[in-house]
Request: fold
Amino acid sequence: MNTQPLRVVIADDQGLVRTGFRMILTAAGIEVVAEASDGEQAVEAVRRTRPDLVLMDIRMPGLDGLEATRRILTGRTPDEPRVVILTTFDLDQYVYAALAAGASGFLLKDVTPEYLVAAVRLVRAGDALLAPAITRRLVERFAAGAAGTTVHRDLAALTPRELEVLRLLAGGLSNSELAQALGVSEATVKTHVTRILSKLGLRDRAQAVVAAYESGLVTPGAT
Reply:
């Protein structure tokens, strides 16, 4: 278990949003190491402070949150931060594109303080922040028109069981729901998910959901 203080960068063009999030996180013992009001500042802040996680507004002037996410998550360094997208819309095509670029999930800006803190800790622990119903709608709505967003994954390396797990993941099932559906323990589910991510070179469950659709394993409306 990681006992080091959690370090966060907040990127949002609204000062009140940054201040509010900073107060909430600081009160919970989470260190806000930098703030940014646009994508360029966010990229620079990440390079300078090397945080664990970035809360990234998707719509900012100049360089937007999507392009900033792409620049931060290059895959060239092992210590890249997790990125969580901030949005006022739960069906935003840019949020889908950010997930495909490697973001670990998204939060609506009207999130409660308790959920914000829990979400940041969840992502730091290595999980993806997916509200299953919303994420599934996002993927179904935008996957068909998102060709070129990411390279389609070759699923040939996956076993039949792993393909089954990935298909269920795309339906928005949690680990406990996956375990119940498959008749196995949650520990076994976690092992399957870890192997899927490793074989496909994926960061987390958010990218796994995107990959399931973009590879054709799951089609919109089929899960």
Notes: Residues 147-152 have pLDDT under 50 and may be disordered. The beta strands are 7-11, 31-36, 53-57, 82-87, 105-108. The CA atoms of residues 13 and 22 lie 14 Å apart. The chain is about 50% helix and 10% strand.
